[in-house]
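anyone seen this seq b4? input:
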Amino acid sequence: RPTAAAAGGASASGAGRPTPRAPACSSAKGMAQELAERGTALLERHRRAAEEEGSEEDVRRARQLFEQALQQDLANEAALLGLGDMLDLGLGGPRDAARASQCYLNARLQGSQLAQVKLCLQGLDKFAALLRTGAIEEGRKDAF
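predicted toks r here
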């Protein structure tokens, strides 16, 4: 017969209070979602922080959490978008636009409209870079 403490009731030393329990994740997807949410919170805290506050540790930790979430669930939209943003901006590690695009594409395949927007913005950024390069080269030709 289970005791009250084993059933989530009062513990013998708790004088009628329920025994606190750590939140249990029922699946790898649940664990991935929890990791992604923690990563998102750290990334948002970094975005709100002033540069002088030095939230670099938050950024590194957020990137780790997103990567851990994706190890648990490759289709986790929050982790795909968060890691994609970090890779695209070079936060918490080197910038990797190609890998960011992969994250956004995978999130888009999960139905994320935000990922579609991010893919379009990446395309516009590449187009703008080509235009800038062309204008600089054209300016050099005109200078000679």
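The CA atoms of residues 49 and 116 lie 27 Å apart. Residues 1-24 have pLDDT under 50 and may be disordered. kinda curious what u guys think
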